[in-house]
Specification:
mainly beta, twelve-stranded antiparallel β-barrel
Amino acid sequence: MSHRLVYVLSLLVFLTLWPSAGMTRDAFTGFELDDRGQYYGFLGLQTPLTSIQKDLDLFAQLYAATLRYSFRSDGNLLNARVDSITPSVGLRQRFDPWNVSVLAGPQFREKHEDVVNGGRTTSDEVGAFLQGETFYWHERGSFHGIISYSTLDDFFWGRLRGKVSAFKTNGGHRIYAGWDVIGMGNKDFNAFHTGPLVEVPIGKVFFLIKGGYKYTSAFHNGAYTGLEIYLPF
């Protein structure tokens, strides 16, 4: 990463973890790998900042991600890596048992791409990021809808995720089973993922295993698998 991105990450981690007494923060991380070796990994931190009024909160989020993918150019299969950091601020409105939130902020990206005649190009880019979410939770099931947009490459990403309680352990912990539907793209590329998932709590930590079918306009049919970890603290 460039020195600028390292500086932004260090500063925003400090701000994100600034104490907020009596408020719960969230940490989430994970990865996704497909059958062509393309990889996506992420780490996110979210913390409340203040309560504006009853059931309306202001919060901050820091999201860092790395993406490794392949693309075709002049008949050649080339590789690329994109590292990004997205600090954002948002509003969350609670309509129990539903939550609705919107957040926005800058997106800092460093992109490395192979070139046909050998070598690699590197570019630093800054864009804007906007995201909307809706979330429903009950101990017997949940629903999460999310859509985001980045001005970098004019890129949209969206996901619908539903889970239901499938099993209850002797200790009273519930194991959830569910399904993902994911779509993304711009004028040059589009992709679609769908498949089952299982979420298992261990103490306060939630582990989610997922996998399924993947279609991309670059390589057509394929498969993916992944792991997500969520920790409220």
